[in-house]
Every structure is written in structure tokens, then in C-alpha cells.
Amino acid sequence: MIRGNMKQQEDSEKKPRPTYEQQREIRTYPPYWQGTLNEAVQPGESVKEVYERLKDFEDMI
């Protein structure tokens, strides 16, 4: 059980995080999108483009 938690923690530590500027921009979006954007945006990506892509995908469902 402990190993599973440690593996999950290691995986989350390896994932690239949005830059400080991207995090600031993410905070301008509705609260219910912020967590998703934080997970989806990669350093160097446009937050707006990721948001539009995810929003379009959500509209298809």
C-alpha cells in the first residue's frame, strides 16, 4: 500500500508544472476550470489554447 502511494507521488513530482506566469493566467479562468488547466497546461503552452481545446472537447460530450 505504501509503495503505491510513493509511486504516485513520484509520478506527480516528475510531471512538468505550468510556469509561474501560466499559473497566474490560470487563476483568471473560472474556478471549476483551474484544476483541469493546471493539470493540462505544459510549460511553454498557451493557456488560452489549452482552455479552448478542452472547452471544445467538453461541448462534444
Question: Brief description of this entry?
Answer:
The chain is mainly α.
Structural class, from helix and strand content?
mainly alpha
Number of helices: 4
Give the helix proportion (percent range). over 70%
**What's the shape?**
globular
Q: Report the sheet-strand fraction.
A: under 5%
Q: How many angstroms does the end-to-end distance come to?
A: 35 Å
What's the main sheet like? none
Q: Give the C-alpha Rg.
A: 14 Å
Low-confidence stretches: none
Q: Estimate the mean pLDDT confidence.
A: 85
Number of E-state strands: 0
Succession of helices and strands = HHHH
Q: Can you describe what's shown?
A:
It is a single chain. With about 60 residues, the chain is mainly alpha-helical. It has helices at about 1-15, 20-25, 30-40, 45-60. The chain is globular, with a radius of gyration of 14 Å.
What is the element layout, followed by pairings?
Blueprint: H1 2-14, H2 20-26, H3 31-40, H4 47-60
Can you give keywords for this protein?
61 residues; mainly alpha
